[in-house]
Amino acid sequence: MKRTISIFLTGILTIVAVLAVETSKMQLSTDRKDTFEGEKEYKTIRITYPMGSREGASGAKTVMEISGNWAKITTVSHRRDTDAPVQPTYLDYNTGREIKTALLKGEESIYTIRSFTINEGLEFLDETEVIAGYKCKKAKTIINSNTLEIWYTTELGMYGSVQPGVAIPEGIVLKVVRNGNPTAVASKVELLNEETVLEPTLRGVELKAPAFNYKIQQSRVIAVNVFDHESIYFRDIPKVTQLDEEKVLRFANGSILMRKVKLPEENMGYSIFTELSHYSEGDAYDRTGSIFIIPTERERSFFDGLLHGKESLPVYHDKDGNPYEGMVVTDDYLPPFELMRFYTSFGVRGYNHIEVADYNWPDSVVFKQEVTDYASILKGDVWVGAWIGNYSHDGHNVTLDIKYYPQRESAPKEVYPLFATVNIMEMAGQAYPENMFRNDSLTVNFKIDRDLKDGYIRYISTGHGGWGGGDEFNPKLNEIFLDGKRIIAYTPWREDCGSYRELNPASGNFANGLSSSDLSRSGWCPGTVSYPVYIRVGDMKAGEHQLKVTIPVGDPAGNSLSYWCISGVLVGDVDGNPAD
């Protein structure tokens, strides 16, 4: 009987103990709930994520506001980016939508909507860290081969992420580290009593995400069209005898286009590119082409030759007395600035009817090259030209734009065109530089107005002619001497021409399996631009200097000759000391 009573009392005590524990748990829960509700008197959370290595370092920041099940993300850019589109992003956690909006120049509004889901491939880890005053837990995931470490807090009673793809289902993301590099770290969390309506009012045109992103990216690019689907050919055309600044001018039987354009006056904060689209209108062959600027600040210019004939240009003579018109700087003349040298493909578009197994010919070839070095001359009113050496009645078609892409501020550079042996006026009788280097060197005497720091020569060199035995297909050493000192010795050579076979529908195919466009060449390939070489010369004093270029040009073979098209421009930072 005593044993029964003992068991009964033990059971009662156990139940009481359990009830006491549960009551205690309930009280703790109630206390936590009361505390949580007290904390949740705020209705909006505002979080700041500085951009840069430290807070305020760049003046840019991302701000996320969270209210209810909506979040709004806005990036405040650098002070010089005041022309950037206003483009907040909204996250609707009720329906899993990401809404991006943008207000472009001219008050044009666009938006895009896509679905997003909470990342399900999360690995939750035991590490913790205090960020902006809140204890954060760590999760890890891999997205597009990038390892992401995500730090989130559950102490704020809401959820959201400055990067929708790394959202956490139970908290707010305060830090994201991608491949070991922090990409977003909260510096400040503000708790606001006011309820904020974050759902956007959508205006303007809805675009798919790729089109939306592209339009945003291009909205700050300044694009100046120079030529729009203009033909370059060789025909009998009326001779231009005076400049007309209102239209496209044709010289040298239509092989040269010239147009005066208005370029941005303020361009120091931009990366500058030339972008040329080309296709054949009848010429099946690979031809030398050049995009250039004619400087007009000295007494004579290349326009003298275009308007009045090659005889009006200053003449350089080699040691045998052979004349070369308008190719070298003189006291009263500057040769053309070559912005880009390109090589047309074998008949793209015009000969796309030629079928070759496994190749789908493109509609055109696009050549794009950076020319930011020349920012000091790519401003204001500028004469821009395009030339393709051809003797075809139905030759080529080109569209040319000069584009300015925003970047960090940069100091202006001095530029001095020294030589350009590309015979742009070939179709008007300008000499090939055939004998210029044979048993001799190109010698250029020039003067710079100010001391230069960190100077370099932007040098383009391509060999031509002679069929298999000529300089087009045989490597030749280029040596350059400045004030008697050799500053470079290198061999322009391209072995990657076969990479561009799909641009060359009319290229001949050989019995050994190669195509003509596959063959390695002296600094160029059909359907590509020629790469400039940057030759460091260091600091240079204002005053007189001399530059020599030597190339062992091959001898003529039958009716074929070898020659080299080279151009060189001296570029440097201004040191401020003028010449005496």
TrEMBL record:
Entries under InterPro entries matching the protein:
Cu2_ascorb_mOase-like_C, PHM/PNGase_F_dom_sf, PngaseF_C, PngaseF_N, PngaseF_N_sf
Q: Does the keyword Disulfide bond apply?
A: yes
Which domain of life does the protein's organism represent?
A: Bacteria
Q: Which GO terms describe its molecular function?
A: hydrolase activity, acting on glycosyl bonds; oxidoreductase activity, acting on paired donors, with incorporation or reduction of molecular oxygen, reduced ascorbate as one donor, and incorporation of one atom of oxygen
**Annotated ranges, domain Peptide-N-glycosidase F N-terminal:** 223-404
Q: Which UniProt keywords apply?
A: Disulfide bond, Glycosidase, Hydrolase
UniProt keyword Disulfide bond, yes or no: yes
**Name of the protein described by the UniProt record:** Peptide-N-glycosidase F, N terminal
* Annotated source species: Proteiniphilum saccharofermentans
